[in-house]
Amino acid sequence: MGRPRERKTSSRTGPVIFSASGGLSLAGAVAGQLGLQLGKRDLDRFPDGECHVRVLESVRGHDVYLLVSTGPPVEANLVELLLLADACRRAGAARLTAVIPYFGYARQDRRASGRESVGARVIADLLEAGGLDRVVAVDLHSPALEGFFSMPLEHLTAVPLLAEALRHSGVGAGGVVVAPDLGAARLADRYARLLELPVAIVHKTRLSGREVSTHGVSGDVDGRQPLIVDDMISTGGTIEAAAKSLAAAGSLPVAAIAATHGLLVAGAGERLAAVNARRVIVTDSVAVPPGLRLPLEIVSIAPILARAVQHLHEDRSLADLVAGS
Ligand code: R5P
Prior knowledge:
The chain is of the alpha/beta class and about 325 residues long. It folds into two domains: about 15-155 and about 305-315, 3-Layer(aba) Sandwich (Rossmann fold); about 160-300, Rossmann fold. Helix content is about 30%, strand content about 25%. The chain is built from eight helices and 14 strands. It has helices spanning about 25-35, 75-90, 120-130, 160-165, 185-195, 235-250, 270-275, 300-315, and strands at about 15-20, 40-45, 50-55, 60-65, 95-100, 135-140, 155, 175-180, 200-205, 210-220, 225-235, 255-260, 280-285, 295-300. The strands form three sheets. The chain has a seven-stranded mixed sheet, with helices on both faces. Strand 11 (about 225-235), helix 6 and strand 12 form a beta-alpha-beta unit. The longest helix has 17 residues, at about 75-90. The radius of gyration is 20 Å and the shape is globular. Bound molecules: ribose-5-phosphate. The site of ribose-5-phosphate has 16 residues, from strand 11 and helix 6.
């Protein structure tokens, strides 16, 4: 189970926030909201591609937060986070928290078939071995991921922020919140409660990383305007397939799409454009690729992360920031 952790007390100084390549501007926004400058560090690469990290200011005795989003390129961002943690630990940081707005590998949380790795567990083990004291994550693909960690994991949510943005979609009582697959049903239920709308679920089967198929919709979508919600959009295949199923079940055109993590890779722009929703709302948990021709709205989670850092630093409750059931 790794080495015993030293007891942390609230006498430590800080907080100090460090960024890496993943989520750089979000880290700057979080630090700015707390009236802080980002910690000084040097990140570079050796000619053979190895990452090298050096912290350029004293962190001895400080409460340190490493804000690194592990979106694409996932492995490079992850290694930067691990090396940054190691540099801070060796430099005497009193407490080390990784704030990971988008947690790469979270979807690999079980073996869907034999002879498969469970990537999320491997990443959790790496973070434990990296000397971190705690992880903060946002709208994980599966909340059960917390059980992969023996250190505390604080699971924050952007759902109230995104629901507030969806409230202005002009659908009124004729809307329906849609989970594009069974895995998103609880999430859709949380949106539906906040928006006071009914829920529908599209039944999806994933064929590969890029391909999905759907087979029916549960719930009444006939003549209603769908608001499709999900934890993340990667290739957009799930949303595109859900929109087709909804149309086949008699819904009106999709009014809006909302997801916490907008990876938007591998042709997602074209797939989402084909859905023709009036709004596509994501957060800044990962940097959205440039040049997408979509009615994209980006809601910042910097206020949530800044409050979380402040509360954790002061050993105060996170109750109003964490993901509920
Ligand atoms: C999967 O269960 C997730 O919640 C998302 O629905 C999925 O990962 C989105 O991926 P894509 O956009 O590539 O279909």
